[in-house]
Amino acid sequence: MKHYPHACLILTLCTLLSCDPSAPPIAIGAPPPGTPPTTATQQRNNATTPSIIHIFVDDLGYGDLGCFGATDIATPNIDRLAAEGIKFTEFYSASAVCSPSRAALLTGRYPVRMGINEVFFPESFTGMPPEEITIAELLKPLGYATGMVGKWHLGHMERYLPLNQGFESYYGMPYSNDMESAVYLSGNEVDSFQVNQRYLTQTYTRHATDFIRAHAGEPFFLYLAHNMPHVPIYASPDFVGSSERGLYGDVVQELDWSVGQVMQTLDSLGIAENTLVIFSSDNGPWLVMEDHGGSAGALREGKQYTFEGGMRVPTVARWPARIPAGQVYDELATQMDWMPTFAALTGAELPADRPIDGRDLTAVLEGTGERADQGLLYIFANELRAYRHGDYKVKLPYRGFAGSPGMKAVAAHDTLLFNLKDDPGEQNNLLTSEPERARALLEEMHREYDGLLPLPEQLVIRGRADHSHYDHVREYLARRDGGNSD
Questions:
Q1: Cα separation of 268 and 99, whole Å?
Q2: Please, which residues have CB within 8 angstroms of residue 27's CB and are 6 or more apart in sequence?
Q3: Residue 112, SS3?
Q4: Distance CA 265, CA 279 (A)
Q5: What is the model's pLDDT at position 11?
Q6: Which residues are catalytic?
Q7: What's the pLDDT tens digit per position in 418-442?
């Protein structure tokens, strides 16, 4: 176990909330009329059971927060979470892209177990299978109020939306903000076709803080999933020009402001002490977007790749009642771990009819132990790409990619072996100097992957449009014009 104190810069950021005049009315997720009053037993449980807020941002890089080394973006509120709680330096998403990582977070399972290996689109007729059990479904029977605000991206057909996955209220966008038909959904219905993305972060923040106020007297689980800083990036007028890293930095500083608003709300209601607040990202930065794409810091590559920059994400957590301040945990942990951790903290029973890949982090949070398992499979686009156990990571050969407007070019490579403690930037291939270690890791990797089998077929994300009619018209015009030429 390696826990040790650290210091993060703590500043004060005070900014008035700008409201989008075109934004729709706020639905705060209050209990419907006729809801039975809280019983005495529930009141006693509420006094000891933590509320949980998981703040999940999109495409934030490992090098984009002050407490992770950024000097050109000020994040005093997120830094405060780290300073007053725990900072995870080797925390992983289960995927290098969006939808799979979100499925893994909410279910505690590798997304390949659900057939989710790519991102969903507005034309997708599939989504996270309703048979999956989410954190919301785990906590709801215990009397938790469950709310989701922000980006869902696990299927936009009604049967896949949050209200059918254990959440009692939902307000947000059903997929990424660069996709067609961007709308605000309230519950299962479109609330507005007009989305002014400059106020996206502020809109989500208002809905989140209203949910907290509505449920301050009972335990709640709030999943606040920001679209930012996924491209196209926007900041409200209050934050444009506020950072030293251009618009991207402005966007991140507004996300930090949002964290501050959540914390101020908890403080004002007197419930911060027993509220677990987690801040993390779904995957690494989208580096092909250049100055709009964030930084992986010292890590190699970013989103869409299984080098560390694609899947190791900045993560901090604060819970004054249970987490000693100033901890740093520098061993492996994953987004899949939150499901079993929440079960342990609340007394919920994990589903016994399916494998749960995450591990309970209670001892890690309390500073009394380590994660039980030190292994992680790196899977991307339904392909096993790499494996980490302990300090070492082995990476399978890769054919390379020439690059595209949406995906960074990466050179081909043979089998790679890295000591991530000594070389987190994955620059020194140890394959020739430690062949036996590489062989043992490869054998262990395949055993671990075989343990996932059998796997379901990959969900159909979308099919190709038939544009043969355009080909016909081009050929027809060529024949016609050719026949009329002199």
A1: 34
A2: 169, 171, 186, 187, 191, 207
A3: helix
A4: 16
A5: 35
A6: 98, 153
A7: 999 999 999 999 999 999 999 999 9
Say whether 191 sits in a helix, a strand or coil. strand
Using omega within 30 degrees of 0 as the cis cutoff, is the peptide bond preceding 454 cis?
Answer: yes
CA distance 201 to 180: 19
Distance CA 124, CA 103 (A): 16
Q: Helix 76-83 to helix 246-269 angle, to the nearest 10 degrees?
A: 50
If you count them, how many residues does the chain have? 486
Alpha helix stretches (DSSP H) within 108-215:
135-139, 200-214
Q: 340: helix, coil or strand?
A: helix
Letter for the amino acid at 381? A
The two tokens of residue 184 are 């605000």
Sheet of 383-389, strands arranged across = 375-380, 383-389, 392-395, 416-419
For helices 200-214 and 246-269, what crossing angle results, to 10°?
Answer: 10
In whole angstroms, give the CA distance from residue 100 to residue 17. 33
Q: 396 and 386 in contact (C-beta within 8 Å)?
A: yes
Measured CA to CA, the distance from residue 285 to residue 327 in angstroms comes to 25
CA atoms within 13 A of residue 301's CA, in its CB half-sphere? 20
CA distance 337 to 341: 6
The pair of structure tokens assigned to 467 is 């544009």
In a 3-state reduction of DSSP, which class is residue 103?
helix
Token couple for 168:
């009692």
pLDDT band for 76, please (50, 70, 90 cuts): very high
Is 19 in contact with 244 (CB distance < 8 Å)? Answer: no
Burial class (CB in 10 A: 0-12, 13-18, 19+), 34: exposed
pTM over 0.70: yes
- According to DSSP, residue 62 is labeled T
pLDDT at 256: 98
Rounded to 10 deg, the angle between the 98-107 and 338-346 helix axes is 20
Dump pLDDT digits (tens) for 282-336.
999 999 999 999 999 999 999 999 999 999 999 999 999 999 999 999 999 999 9
Q: CA-based angle 314:397:433, to the nearest 5?
A: 85
Task: Give pLDDT tens digits for 272-293.
Answer: 999 999 999 999 999 999 999 9
Cα of first residue to Cα of last residue in the chain, in angstroms, is: 85
Q: Which two tokens stand for residue 264?
A: 């101020």
